[in-house]
Amino acid sequence: MNTTPQFYLGIDISKRHFDVALLAESGKRKNKKFNNTDTGFARLLSWLEQQHAIDIHACMEATNVYGNRLAEYLFDQGIPISMVNPTRVKGFAQSELLRSKTDKQDASLIARFCQAMKPRLWEPEPLAIRQLKALVKRLDMLVEMRQQEVNRLDVADDVIRPDIEHHIQELDQRILKLREEIKSHIDDDPGLKEQKELLLSIPGIGEKTLATLLAYFSSISRFDNAKKLASFCGVAPRVRESGTSVKGRGAMSKIGSSHLRKSLFFPAMVALRHNPALKQLRDRLVEKGKPKMVIIGAAMRKLIHIIYGVLKNRTPFDEKLAIRA
Asked: What is the pLDDT, as a whole number, of residue 171?
């Protein structure tokens, strides 16, 4: 933004409603609640006009899918918006020694955070990536639903077993159909197809993981470096340091996408056996006596660094470069 915003709009959003706090540069604040619907979005815009609010910087936590549509709406209306890690807002709240918590107070807190920290502006991902992410999430839901039915089948009474078996067959068909849709969606988009070929050049990355990686990593330009991508995935090591007695690197931070960590776990295990760069890493850590889970965590981080380099530079996997990195 070229000028200092005159207003900061903090947004605390849930499935059905969202609370906003409009904070003026002067310190005056007004609060309002709206429905999390298209009608609610339009009423928010009208309310902002009634408040003569111009040069707005909006801000919300990037916690769940409930805020995506509102963020896209505000962006389309020309209102700059930031989507921030809730951990940053939590830390800001602790600095203010806040103890009570309501939706109204949370919206006001986010507005003050926005004014004080001036977080980076957000832009929506390209439509093809948003659609791919929706398809991948739906596939995960169906796979989880199928596993739940399989678990029920193990203990089901004979009278309901046929119905559960029929439902599992239906889910198998829907999963197969959705996998085909995802494959076509990727192959029909030139950018996604190019990235698909780049990712498949990395030993350890297969078709099952591919769609998830493309859904979350295609907009690689959002990350300044591989370390930030690792932090986004929640596999960056947690630094432990306290005085002179406690120092070192702890376990994974796990502040990030649990879905991505789960998706990267098995590719990392495969890469430890077949990817030369990760095999070298494994041998070095085994020699140091590191436990298995520490080695897998390190492999996940190494794999993310390789993925970042391949997508950022738009060049296939290079074994020599990966070993030196």
From this structure: 97
**Which of 170, 8, 27 is closest to 81 using CA atoms?**
8
- Please classify residue 107 by burial: count the beta carbons closer than 10 Å to its beta carbon, then call 0-12 exposed, 13-18 middle and 19+ buried: buried
Are 286 and 311 contacting, i.e. CB atoms less than 8 angstroms apart?
A: no
pLDDT at 244: 47
Query: So what's the pLDDT on residue 321?
Result: 77
Amino acid at 181: E
Residue among 94, 182, 183, 76 nearest 138 (CA): 182
Q: Are 309 and 226 in contact (CB under 8 A)?
A: yes
Backbone angles phi, psi at 7, to 5 degrees: -140, 150
The angle formed by the CA atoms of residues 193, 198 and 200, to the nearest 5 degrees, is: 95
> How far is Cα 135 from Cα 112, in angstroms, rounded to an integer?
36
Please give the CATH number for the structural domain made up of 7-117.
3.30.420.140
Q: Which residue has the tokens 């916690």?
A: 63
Query: Which is nearest to 78 in space by CA: 111, 48, 107?
Result: 48
Positions of the chain with pLDDT under 50: 1-2, 239-250, 253
Host H or E run for residue 292: helix 292-313
Task: Output the DSSP codes for 8-44.
Answer: EEEEEE-SSEEEEEEEETTS-EEEEEEESSHHHHHHH
pLDDT of residue 261: 79
Backbone angles phi, psi at 29, to 5 degrees: -135, 145
At 252 the pLDDT is 54
Would you list the domain boundaries of the chain? 7-117, 127-188, 215-324
Distance CA 127, CA 310 (A): 23
Q: How far apart are CA 16 and CA 67, in angstroms?
A: 11
* pLDDT confidence of residue 129: 92
List the alpha helices (DSSP H) in 58-217.
Answer: 68-76, 86-95, 103-117, 127-155, 161-188, 190-200, 207-217
What's the pLDDT at 90? 86
> What pLDDT shows up at residue 256?
53
Task: Judge contact between 122 and 201, C-beta under 8 A.
Answer: no
